[in-house]
Q: What sequence folds into this?
């Protein structure tokens, strides 16, 4: 039976039940509680294209897991045990965050406020399990955990900007020197204006801008690695190994992107931006496809777990 028909039949069956409407009311109140988090999340993804792209990839990866994982939809619109556990976890995290806000020193307030993110994700998982049934427990645990990591890491977009820029410029410069190019890396900027990190290759200057720091591809690589680790229910060691592999591949592909752009630029200056976008897209998606294959992402139907 199609999912829409299952949901409709379940709703028609339960619409006269007071318990059903009380459960919906609980989720509505949770939605109001987390509305500020939703607004922050949507504004962040709109302002940062890298976060938006990472979210799209996370969505596509989730679709792949649903497509090949043979998710079983049953007992819809029901506060089943797995939905209850997720809801209770969300409630506990909210209480912990509220209590910690009162007693934690000022220096810890920033970290304490981050507790609302896992609470938000647990609440989302509870709602999805309520709507689509307990058969979605595995996929909701996987996606909620990865989405939580996405939201937590998105907080560090700005703090990690310059460190990642420095690494990208230094490592790509070393790679170009290995290829026989003369390379200089340094900060340039007039007094009173923000400095620019310039990579000088064969006397051609290249600005290592914020978009070149690799945060997008590294973040997305890490998320795919974490998603697959959670989906495969790997142990701590194997999960850590997954994440390390994802980080390394993401970093390497960002360096590869910069090196290719620098090498092609002297020959394609009239079409520099087009070349820049093509190389960026090819390396970005090539990186993610490689990670999916290396880390055993499903590419065909698997048995129901």
A:
């Amino acid at each position: 039976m199609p999912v829409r028909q299952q949901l409709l039949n379940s709703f028609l069956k339960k619409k006269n039940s007071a318990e059903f409407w009380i459960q919906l009311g609980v989720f509505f109140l949770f939605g109001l509680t987390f509305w500020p988090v939703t607004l922050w999340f949507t504004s962040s993804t709109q302002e940062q294209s890298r976060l938006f792209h990472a979210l799209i990839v996370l969505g596509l990866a989730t679709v792949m897991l649903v497509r090949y994982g043979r998710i079983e939809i049953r007992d819809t619109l029901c506060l089943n045990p797995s939905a209850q556990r997720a809801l209770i976890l969300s409630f506990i995290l909210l209480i912990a965050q509220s209590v910690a806000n009162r007693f934690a020193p000022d220096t810890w307030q920033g970290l304490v406020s981050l507790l609302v993110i896992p609470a938000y994700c647990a609440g989302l998982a509870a709602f999805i399990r309520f709507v689509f049934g307990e058969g979605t427990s595995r996929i909701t645990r996987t996606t909620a955990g990865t989405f939580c990591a996405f939201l937590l890491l998105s907080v560090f977009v700005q703090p990690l900007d310059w460190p990642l820029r420095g690494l990208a410029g230094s490592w790509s410069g070393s790679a170009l020197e290995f290829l026989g190019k003369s390379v200089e890396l340094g900060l340039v900027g007039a007094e009173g204006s923000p400095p620019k990190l310039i990579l000088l290759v064969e006397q051609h200057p290249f600005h290592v801008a914020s978009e070149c720091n690799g945060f997008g591809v590294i973040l997305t690589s890490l998320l795919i690695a974490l998603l697959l680790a959670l989906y495969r229910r790997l142990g701590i060691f194997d999960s850590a190994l997954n994440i390390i592999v994802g980080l390394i591949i993401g970093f390497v592909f960002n360096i590869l992107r910069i090196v290719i752009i620098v090498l092609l630029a002297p020959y394609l200056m009239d079409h520099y931006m087009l070349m820049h976008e093509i190389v960026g897209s090819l390396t970005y998606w090539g990186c993610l496809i490689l990670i999916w294959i290396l880390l055993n992402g499903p590419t065909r139907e698997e048995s129901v777990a």
Notes: Residues 236-264 form the longest helix (29 residues).
